[in-house]
Amino acid sequence: MDLISLIVAWLVTSVSLFIISKLPTGVEIDSFEKAMFSAAVFGILNALLRPILGFLSFPITFLTFGLFAIILNGIIFGLAAYLVQGFRLRWGFWSALIGAVALGIINSLIYKLLGVVS
Description:
Helices cover 75% and strands 5% of the residues. The chain is mainly α. The protein has one domain (3-114). The chain has a two-stranded antiparallel ribbon with strand order 1-2.
């Protein structure tokens, strides 16, 4: 992944998080700057924790036909909210789960609009 692709992914995720904070999902982000910082933290957590959690949870992910991966997304989303001041989850884990699903959908829509392959 080159630097331009990394910056585009960061900006798309930042915009997606800011949009999610305006929807009734229970996700609250104070400003676009906080959304940018949250996107960076979310990306770092995804890069560092996703492989470890994915490996450890492979048996249950296999048994649930991959649906447990959504729970992993919610865990990482919630951890990012815990680490970033100004990024709150009103309903706890349910907000994290809804936010993670919404992030995936909105990211996909923005990439489709931009005509960029993620």
